[in-house]
Amino acid sequence: MMSDQKSTVVIPCAGKGTRLYPLTKDLSKSLVKIGNYKMIDYAISECILGNIDRIVFIISPKDEQLKDHISCINNNKKIPGLKKNEYVDIDIKIVEQKIPSGLGNAIYLAKDYILDDSFGIILPDDLILEKKSSIKKMKSIYLKYKINILFGKYVSQDLIQSFGIIETGLRYENLYLTVNKLLEKPNPEDTNSNLSILGRYYLNVKIFDYLHNLEPGHGGEIQLTDALSKMLSDHRFIVTEFEGNHFDVGNLRGLELAEIYLNNNPL
Description:
Layout: E1 8-12, E2 33-34, E3 37-38, H1 39-49, E4 54-59, H2 64-71, E5 91-96, H3 103-108, E6 118-122, E7 126-128, H4 134-145, E8 148-154, E9 164-172, E10 176-184, E11 195-204, H5 207-211, H6 224-232, E12 237-241, E13 246-248, H7 252-264
Parallel strand pairs: 1-4, 1-6, 4-5, 8-12
Antiparallel strand pairs: 2-3, 6-11, 7-13, 8-11, 9-10, 10-12
């Protein structure tokens, strides 16, 4: 039965958080406080509310504070969206990214810890503040159609060159846009799309074949988008379009906007 499939989510949190300096001078980016919780707690909450079986955290080798915080998840009674005494029992794996060589490399390090034929990815600095777990929705779509899923958000023209952009085709099952092409931070003149890749993915484990021996791309790093582009020529992808509350908390302005939102809409 489909429901017997074990689910895994990979949360990469080895980034240095340079865009959040000086907050990250002595603190892991994932431990920066947003509202009443730490950045990583919102990603953890999304997994717990999504009935995910295992979380694989990719962290920097010397990040003992983050390691300690993660190790206490099942005893931590302070996770957004959870009732005070709610029982939490989620399998946790911590993997060290010894050399910071990009998101693609971070994801590849999770290869041996995936429980089934697919897994989700949550980028914690793409903060989504919704009552329902986005990764849960993506998981259920994957289980129904066995198809790779990206999360898309429409952005204004001036932001196109800051994001990975999805060019789309006809709708799959009359519901979800199919992915024709992925562009890493293109010039707005080079695309007619303004649908950006948001930091949620649900992928078949075949992605690891494309990440294996992948050449460094943008910024000299192993880019997940490059692997997805290669995979796209052999496998079908769809997009779920997101229109809820999203904040890029990897920068100070996004952090400030998230704080303002949470002050007015406490969880």
